[in-house]
Specification:
The chain is mainly alpha-helical. It contains 4 helices and 6 strands; from the N terminus they run ααααββββββ. The protein is rod-shaped, with a radius of gyration of 29 Å. Keywords: Membrane, Transmembrane, Transmembrane helix.
Length: 158
């Protein structure tokens, strides 16, 4: 479990690092006057490179329309500003939060299935009626519960 967590956090460090480096390089290119053409050429390469990194780390992008829309929207926003405001790191952050939500939902589903599959700890109430822990719970020879209903004397007999 801990190995999986380290692996998971490492992939996000790589993705954030890549996005931050690309953003800084694009801002420096624009500020130094080297040219917007180089920055725009980086835009063409950065989107597919990010998609490739996500695929390498087995983070689904193509099958999730929200994630594709975020990549396309960010590329469009960068094109509108003329490359002055590259925010690839924001896109990685958005996809990271979306993946965390998806993983939390999957973990909750697995825990729920595990709880329902547990034969020892089943819910005692079904349809408003308390179920007996066994069909015949006995202390000595006296029955305490019969079909989930306790005798009026507390189940104890003399």
């Amino acid at each position: 479990m801990e190995q999986t967590k380290k692996k998971s956090s490492m992939r996000w460090v790589v993705l954030y690092g890549f996005a931050i480096i690309v953003d800084i390089v694009q801002i420096l290119i624009d500020l130094t006057g080297i040219g917007i053409a180089i920055s725009e050429a980086m835009e063409v390469v950065t989107g597919p490179a990010l998609i490739g990194l996500f695929s390498l780390f087995k983070i689904p992008i193509i099958t999730k329309p929200k994630r594709i829309a975020s990549l396309l929207g960010l590329a469009l926003g960068d094109a509108i500003t003329g490359g002055i405001a590259p925010f690839w790191v924001v896109d990685v952050w958005y996809i990271h939060s979306d993946v965390k939500k998806e993983e939390a939902a999957e973990q909750a589903r697995q825990e729920r299935e595990m709880m329902l599959g547990n034969t020892i700890r089943q819910p005692l109430y079904r349809d408003g009626i308390r179920q007996s822990t066994s069909s015949q719970t006995q202390i000595g020879n006296s029955r305490i519960n019969k079909d989930g209903i306790r005798a009026s004397s507390g189940g104890l007999t003399r």
